[in-house]
Design a protein that fits this description.
There is one protein chain. The two termini are 41 Å apart. This protein has a nine-stranded mixed beta sheet. By secondary structure, the protein is of the alpha/beta class. It folds into two domains: 176 residues, Rossmann fold (3-Layer(aba) Sandwich), CATH 3.40.50.720; 116 residues, N-(1-d-carboxylethyl)-l-norvaline Dehydrogenase, domain 2, CATH 1.10.1040. Helix content is 52%, strand content 14%.
């Protein structure tokens, strides 16, 4: 991945272009709202009239399209914000006059796929991909939350310039993530960092429920704890922020954790052990005693 520097001339020309958004899900609605604020949104499309109707826009001049995929005739940049599995069918269903314009720019909003996804899709013009590294909640506040996020971009020429302009309009930090191998690895990391938190919180909630701990605010407290850990990692880096018994070399607590799971929730042992091993690496880099490191590794290998 490399940092992408915006081209000032290209940014000025793109600011005068009109954009269309295909897709009115959480991501599509948010990016349509952002583009509307910059007065460049020409149209937004969804299969369902009810979906496109709820897109929160200030402008009354934006075409709200539904039914077969289509874009406003005067839109020169098309942002395709549909799930990866719907991408091919959506592009194939576009009218030929939309796909055949060599001056039109096409960007797919996808983390796992880059510019290569456009091959064989029958569109003329410049193609690329963008992906804001953010968890979308489907609320109007998502537009503000774009500011400061990382945005993975891919593509050449006009598509790259359009992606950079979009990142700048969002207040995001753009970076080139190119090729299928990089895109898959990038998206895998994003899933672990975002969706993985939900899985861990679900496991944590199951543990306290199994133990008979019933407090209405405990689930919220666990989520706040995860939020604080993420904030610490953002501010001080993972190694600097990491806390807990494994990082400290608290052997007794780790033994009790393993014993409780062995008795009550043995299916969580592999998860605990896999998550603990990177923490042992952090403990080693912090310089805890070798005897503690050796004991931790023995416990986590199931030999202690």
């Amino acid at each position: 991945m490399r940092h992408a520097a915006p081209d000032e001339g290209a940014s000025r020309s793109l600011a005068a272009r009109s954009w269309a958004v295909l897709g009115a899900g959480r991501v599509g609605r948010t990016l349509a709202g952002l583009l509307d604020r910059h007065h460049v949104l020409a149209s937004v499309w969804s299969r369902e009239a009810s979906s496109v109707a709820v897109v929160n826009l200030d402008s009354q001049d934006v075409d709200r399209l539904h039914g077969p995929p289509n874009v406003a005739a005067h839109a020169s940049v098309v942002l395709v914000a549909v799930p990866d599995e719907a991408f091919g069918a959506t592009i194939a269903a576009l009218p030929a006059e939309s796909r055949d314009d060599p001056g039109r720019v096409w960007l797919h909003v996808s983390g796992a796929s880059g510019a290569e996804r456009w091959r064989g899709k029958g569109v003329c013009g410049s193609t690329g991909a963008v992906h804001p590294l953010m968890s979308f909640q489907g609320t109007p506040e998502d537009v503000e939350r774009l500011s400061g996020c990382f945005m993975a971009i891919d593509g050449d020429g006009d598509a790259r310039d359009a992606a950079l302009w979009l990142a700048r309009a969002c207040g995001a930090h753009p970076g080139m993530v190119s090729g299928s191998a990089q895109r898959v690895a990038y998206h895998l990391a994003a899933v672990l960092a975002s969706n993985g938190v939900y899985a861990l919180l679900a496991a944590a909630n199951h543990i306290v429920q199994h133990a008979g701990i019933e407090h209405d605010s405990l689930g919220e407290g666990l989520a706040s704890l995860a939020f604080g850990s993420a904030a610490g990692a953002r501010e001080r880096g993972v190694d600097g922020a990491a806390t807990g018994p494994i990082v400290r070399g608290d052997i007794g607590t780790v033994r009790r954790h393993l014993a409780w799971m062995s008795e009550h929730r043995a299916e969580l042992l592999p998860l605990y052990r896999e998550l603990a091993r990177p923490l042992v690496g952090i403990a080693e880099r912090r310089g805890i005693r070798p005897v503690l490191l050796a004991t931790l590794r023995t416990l986590l290998d199931g030999d202690g």
